[in-house]
Structures are given as C-alpha cells and as structure tokens.
Amino acid sequence: MPASTLCYSDRKAKNMNMLKIVAVPMHKEGRKFVAIFAAITLVLGFIWEPLFWLGLGATIWCYYFFRDPVRSIPQQDGLVISPADGVVSLIEQVVPPAEMGLGTAPLTRVSVFMNVFNCHVNRAPIAGKVVDITYHHGKFLNASLDKASIHNERNSVTLEARDGTRIGVVQIAGLVARRIVCFTEEGETLEAGHRFGLIRFGSRLDVYLPEGIAPLVDVGHTAVAGETILADLKALTQLQRFGVPE
Questions:
Q1: Is the separation of the CB atoms in 158 and 207 below 8 Å?
Q2: Rounded to the nearest 10 degrees, how much is the dihedral formed by the CA atoms of 77, 83, 87, 89?
Q3: Beta-carbon neighbour count of residue 209 at 10 Å?
Q4: Cα separation, 174 vs 60, whole angstroms
Q5: Active site (annotated) includes residue 156
Q6: Going by C-beta distance under 8 Å and a sequence separation of 6 or more, which residues neighbour residue 192?
Q7: Residue ranges in the chain assigned as alpha helix (H)
Q8: Is the model's pTM score more than 0.85?
Q9: How far apart are CA 84 and CA 81, in angstroms?
Q10: What digits encode the pLDDT tens for the residues 127-154?
C-alpha cells in the first residue's frame, strides 16, 4: 500500500478517535433538558447577545452532563465494577438498609461521589438478577456526607449473581440532584456494566460488598462506571477453599 494511503488512513483513524471523544452520545433522558436549555438560549439571544453566549455554554454543559459514552466492561467472572463515574468518597463498615435483604451484620460500603461534571449514567456492578428495588423519599443533603445514605432520597437495588451472592447498590440524591431514574425492574437479569439508572444533577452511589470481601480501591480513587474494579468476589471463595479464617 502506498505511503500516502497509509498516512491518509492514519489521519482518518485519528479523526475518528477524536470524534468519539468530542461527540459522545447523549442519553435519551437528557434530550428534553437540552431542548429546554436551547430554547431559553434563543430567547436570551433576542434580549442581549452576551446572554445568548452564556446560554449556549449552559446548553453545551447540559449535553455533556447527559453523555453516555461506550465503556470497556471487564469480562472476568466475580469482579465488582463501579456503578458510577466519580471519586471514592467513603469506605466504611455499616449495616446495609433492611429492605435490601443483605442481613444485619455490618458490610463494607464503597461510596462513589459524582459531581455535576461526571457522567451520571449508572451501571450494574455485577451480572445478576434484580431481586429487590425499593425507593425512599428523603432529604437532599450533600451526597458526600456519611449521613446522606440514611437521610437522603434514595433508590436501593439488590442484585443476585448466579451463585447466590448478593450485592447492594444504592442511588442517592444529592444537594443539587432532584430526580433518581431507574431503568430496571424486579425480576430482570442484568449483565455487568448494563445501564440501570441515572441521577440528575450531582449525587452518589453506594455499593455493599458481601461479608469477607475487601475493596480494591481506596478513598480518593477516581472511578469509571463499568470499568473500574471495586472488588473481586473470588477472593472469598479462595479463603473458604483453603480454610483461612476471615
């Protein structure tokens, strides 16, 4: 193949990669919001030109907020992946919400805090069946606070893997967030990394790991939904297999 053709192919591939980065698909939940922002921007443009540019910036941000990028989902069995983009804000031993059916013993809870610039599409942390979904009305405290798990408006989802292992994931509304959206239903089977919900605007997700499972992330770690590995469920199997005390 001529060198000129190779150079053209390389340039085309680079342009396609840049296009994927810049022109990220938007989730359908954001269409009406972007339309509202755009309409307001047009009205502002008739009032005063600088307001039009401010509105245009806000419209672009709204599109960016509802972006829904393609993710490379780890395929190894037993991995617990992050359900959200953001920063690991808390890792604590706490008793899970009673409605999740995870028992009364304290479990490791990994919290991922999403700010208004993170992608807010939520993904299933494991492959499994949705055995329970419970919605709680509540307050709208800062989602980075520990007490937000108890007092804030939230949606609790319990997933059960094929081997019976259960994982709890909770969507928590934040200081700005006023709407939790859940796309899945009880009885549905999800693949790991499957889109199951969305929160707008700014919020947090809690993941409750099974007893004996240690997280593979630390507080301050930046997580990517559908890609970052939070824990490995096989670790528990190996401990039990060799009779090592927890």
A1: no
A2: -90
A3: 24
A4: 22
A5: no
A6: 73, 74, 79, 81, 124, 125, 126, 127, 226
A7: 3-22, 31-47, 49-65, 148-151, 234-242
A8: no
A9: 9
A10: 999 999 999 886 655 555 565 566 678 8
